[in-house]
Design brief:
Elements (H helix, E strand, L loop, with lengths): L4 H10 L51 E5 L12 E7 L4 H17 L4 E7 L5 H11 L4 E5 L7 H4 L7 E5 L5 E6 L4 H9 L22 H6 L9 E5 L12 E7 L4 H19 L2 E7 L5 H10 L5 E5 L12 H5 L7 E5 L5 E4 L6 H9 L16
Parallel strand pairs: 2-3, 3-4, 8-9, 9-10
Antiparallel strand pairs: 1-4, 2-5, 5-6, 7-10, 8-11, 11-12
Length: about 375
């Protein structure tokens, strides 16, 4: 569906009403730590005022924080392996109501092709009207009432600036497009549906972020020897650059500016005693742009025992996202956990924190293949 001229004007006016998050447009945010938004798709597919939300592109999608549902409650973590479309809308917003026709069309066209649509309604007002609208239109997808916690609701997590806002998340749980025009959502879905679906031979798909679909760059590093691990600052023993010192290494790439990567690091630190029992070590690699004094403070306050290093700057501008080690491992976002064997070979990239010990177990004690020719019970 394409809006006519008058509707576009209405949208433009409504979309100027930001959420009090601080609207940043054009190039006014140049040189910030997060850098400029990266657009995989043509710029005219986006609303021009969607700067903040577009900075989520290429990053893991924040989980929803809601207080009520129309239809079955949904969690993004449980939707890995499916494409997810989020429609941030409100029943008081006329363009949002008009775009519900687009949503209905998307559900009809893609529900049986691995696509889930979720509506996220404004927490401030008109939820009762949303319920009536859902009944009147016989909406066949789940709609959430956003959390009333304006400091940590879904709108805040997604840096929402106005309604309607569409976000498309791929099968790996990565935000691929944010701030789309309603009529361009289907085009993005079509492109993502063409992404290769592949499984890893070494470990089950559920061990990895995204399940059967993963970042091709991460997958490509598996089976290769670590060429170099280049860092500058270090807390704890400085690791061998080739990571071939005889121990399995769990590398966790994180950043002080990414709360989700810090949470993932906390999960791994809780598992560190189990890793040590298996002869493995944990090394936390923070972003090259992180303030080292802040890293040291976090480590001291949390009584961290893990080795912590800061990635080395790439040649040129230090504000460029990603250091030399991230580049060597084809890492485009954090958090990412990579497991390297005792010989310095990457065995698994993009492992879920809850599966790290399982992967280490399989590396340290590889499963024995059944061989029908082998003697059993001591028989010859």
């Amino acid at each position: 569906m394409r809006f006519g001229r008058s509707m576009n004007i209405t949208i433009a006016r409504l979309r100027c009403a930001a959420l009090g998050l601080g609207l940043i447009l054009g190039g006014s945010d140049h040189g910030t730590r997060a850098g400029e938004p990266r657009n995989e798709f043509p710029l005219d597919w986006y609303f021009s005022d969607q700067f903040l939300v577009r900075r989520l592109q290429g990053q893991p999608a924040p989980e929803l924080n809601t207080q009520a549902w129309i239809g079955a409650p949904q969690e993004l973590e449980k939707l890995r392996g499916r494409i997810v479309v989020l429609d941030f809308w409100a029943a008081w917003c006329a363009p949002c109501i008009a775009a519900l026709n687009v949503d209905a069309s998307l559900v009809r066209q893609y529900a049986d092709r691995g696509v889930t649509l979720i509506g996220v309604h404004d927490s401030n007002r008109a939820w009762d009207k949303a319920q009536r609208e859902a009944e009147r239109r016989q909406i066949r997808y789940s709609i959430a009432l956003d959390s009333s916690d304006e400091q940590d609701n879904t709108a805040r997590r997604y840096k929402l600036e106005a309604w309607p806002t569409y976000v498309v998340i791929d099968r790996r749980g990565i935000v691929r497009a944010a701030g789309l025009r309603p009529e361009k959502v289907a085009d993005v879905i079509e492109r993502i549906l063409k992404d290769p679906i592949e499984e890893t031979a070494s470990f089950p798909p559920e061990f990895f972020l995204g399940g059967v679909t993963r970042d091709p760059g991460l997958r490509a590093t598996e089976g290769s020897a670590v060429s170099v691990m280049t860092t500058d600052e270090c807390l704890g023993p400085r690791p061998d650059p080739s990571l071939s010192s005889g121990s399995v290494t769990v590398l966790h790439f994180w950043s002080t500016s990414n709360v989700y990567s810090i949470r993932a690091l906390d999960e791994l630190r809780a598992l560190e005693p189990e890793l040590i029992q298996r002869g493995a070590r944990l090394i936390a690699v923070c972003d090259n742009r992180d303030d080292w004094a802040e890293v040291r403070t976090l480590a001291a306050e949390g009584n961290w025992s893990s080795t912590i290093v800061r990635d080395a700057d790439p040649p040129g501008d230090r504000r460029t996202p990603g250091g030399l080690t991230m580049a060597a491992f084809n890492i485009r976002f954090v958090p990412i956990t990579v497991i390297v064997d005792a010989h310095g070979v990457v065995r698994a990239a993009g492992v879920r924190a809850t599966r790290v010990v399982d992967v280490v177990d399989r590396i340290v004690n590889p499963p024995v293949e059944n061989d029908e020719r082998a003697p059993r019970n001591g028989s010859k």
